[in-house]
Amino acid sequence: MTSESYRSVVLVKQVPDTHNVTGDVMTKDGTMNRGALPAIFNPEDLNALEMALQVRDKHGGTVTVITMGPPKAADVLRDCLYRGADRVILLTDRAFAAADTLATSYALKCAVEKSGAFDLIFCGRQAIDGDTAQVGPQVAEKLGIPQITYAESILELKGREITVQRTLDLGTEIVRCALPCLITVVASANTPRPPSARRRIEYKLAATPLELPALLGKWPEFKSEAGLQKHLAERNQLIPIWAAADIGADPEKIGLAGSPTQVHKVNFVVLESTASKDIAPTREGIAAMIEELVKEYIVG
Amino acid sequence: MPDTQSVWVYIEQNEGKIADVSLELLGKARELADALHHELTGVLCGHRVQDLAQEAIAHGADRVLLADHPELELYRTLPYARVILHLARSRKPEIFLIGATSNGRDLAPRIASALRCGLTADCTDLQIGEYTDKRENKIYPGLLFQIRPAFGGNLIATIVNPRTRPQMATVREGVMHKPAADPARKGAIEEIKPDLEKGDLALTILSRSVKPSTVHLKDSPVIVAGGGGADEAADFQMLRDLANLLGGEVGASRAAVDAGLISAEHQIGQTGVTVRPRLYIAAGISGAIQHRAGMDQSSKIIAINTDPDAPIFQVAHYRIVGDMAEVLPLIIQSLREKAK
Fold first, then answer.
1. Which residue in A68, A129, A278, B29 is a FRET match for B309, CA 20 to 30 A apart?
2. Closest residue in B to A23 (Cα–Cα)
3. Could you give the ipTM of this predicted complex?
4. Which residues of A fall within a CB distance of 8 Å from B165?
5. For residue B145, what is the nearest residue in chain A, using CA coordinates?
6. CATH number assigned to the domain covering A6-253
7. Is the whole model's pTM more than 0.90, yes or no?
C-alpha cells in the first residue's frame, strides 16, 4: 500500500424486495409473509460498494464489507466478493434480532472497530425495507466521525481530505471533509459493476462456517466439516461470522433490549371506499362529469 | 429555565426562510402540546435569523431557542448537532419533531444516537395515546404515537418510545396542515451562545447551488398524473396540456419515473411528494399502495385506466374505464367547449 491508499469499510444489508410486494405476501389479518418476498441486495448499498471499489481502483487500498443479518445474508457478501470486495464479514447472532436503528448502529459500530483501522465508511443512503436513512448517521455518531450524506460523487480524494458532491432536496452542495468520515451514497451516484465471471469462479466455495454442512453435501470428497473449513480458510474462502460476544457488544445495547422504539400496532392498509361514479369514456359521459365538477367549483 | 415540560420543533431555515415543513410541524405540535399541557418550543439555528424566531411564534411556538452564529449560517451536521444536543441535554424535552427534509434526515439520527433515544422516520401522523408496555407490564399515558407507512407502504405502523426521552420523529413535508400565522401572538425568544469545538468544523461547504424548483406539486390545486400506462412521450404531452388548461401541475407514479417518461421531482407517493389537491386526475396509474399513500387525501379523484380492476379505482370518485389516449382528448375538448 502506498501512503495515498485508503482503507474502506462498506456497510450493506440484505432486504426483502418491498418494491415488488404481491398478493401472496400480505395475509388477510394484516400480517406479512416475509418468506414470500425475495431477499435482495439493498439497491443503494450496491452504489456504496461501487464507490468504495472505485476509490480502491484509483488510489489502492482495501474494501471490507460488513453486513448484519440472518445466516442467509451471506448471499450478499458472496455477491460483494464477486464484485471485487477484498474481505467480507457476517455479523450474525440471535441476540441482534429485532434491533431498531439505534441498536443496529451500535452493533455495526462495534464491528467496524473490531475490523481494524479505516479511512472511509460507505453505506447506501437508505434501505428499502424501512426507508429510514438513519443507520449511516447513527454509526458515524457512535464512531465520533463526520458524516457526508446523499453523496453523488467524490470530486477529489487527496491526503487526509475528501471533496464530495451531495444531492439535496434544495439543490447540490460541494463539501470538503477531514478523514476518517462516513459517506452515504445515493442511487444516481454510479452504475454498480456486475459480479465478475472470473471472481465467481475464484470464490465459488466462499461460505460461512454455518453453511459448511450444506456444502459438504455438495462436495462429499471433503469428508468432514473440519476438513472443508480448513480447505476454505487456506484459500481465503471462509466468510467469518462474528457474534455479539466477538465484537464486545454490551448485551443491553443490542437487539430488542437495545431498541428504544417499540411497535405499538400494525395496520393493514385498508382502502377507503369512496362514493364513486362510473363515467362512460364517451363525449357525453365526460361532458356530464365536467359539468358536475364545474358546479362543485372543482374546476373552472 | 422553564419548569414545564416541552414539545420541541426544529425550525429548519434555508437562505433566511423557514422550511414549510417546520411551519406545518408547529401546527401539529401545538395540538400535541395543548393535549399534554406542555410548552411548545422552537429550536432555530442560523446567522442573522432573529426575524424568523418571531415567525415561529406567530405559527404557534411559545418559546424559541435561537442560536445565531456565523458558523451556523449554512446547515452542517456537526455544529448544528453540537448546539442542539447541548440544549436537549440541559432542558430535556419530552417530544422533539424534525421535518423529514434532506437536512432534517441528516440531523435527526445524529441527535437521537447521541441521546440514545428512539427515532421514527417519515411519520405521516402523530397522536397522543396510552400505551401498555407488555415487556415490563407498565402503562404509559400520554405517549406520542408515531404513525408511518412501513414495508414499502403496505402497512401502517404505530411506533412508540416509552422509555427514552425525547420521543423523536421526523415528519414528511406536506402531510400536516400549515397553521395560519398570527403576527400578534406573543412568545419568548431566548438567545443561545453556541459552544462549538474545533472538531465540529471538520467539514467545510465549498459551494452550494440551490436549484429553484420548477415543479410545485405540493401547492397545486390540480394535479394531472400519468403512470406506467402512459407509454409514449405523446401521452405526457397530453397530460401537460390538460394540466395547463386546468392551471395545475403534472405528476407521475414511480412506474412513469422509472420508465424515464418524466423527472423524479414529479413523483407522487410514498417515495415522492404527498399531495392533497382539489382535483387529482390519475391517468394510466394502476394505483399501487405506495402511490395512493401520496394522493388519496385529494378532494376529488378521477381515475382513468383500461383495467377495470385497477386498485386506483378503489379511491376514485370518478371511474373511467378506458384508454387515456382516448379519454384525455375528450376531457380537454369538453373543458375547451365549457370555456367558450
1. A129
2. B154
3. 0.88
4. none
5. A264
6. 3.40.50.620
7. no
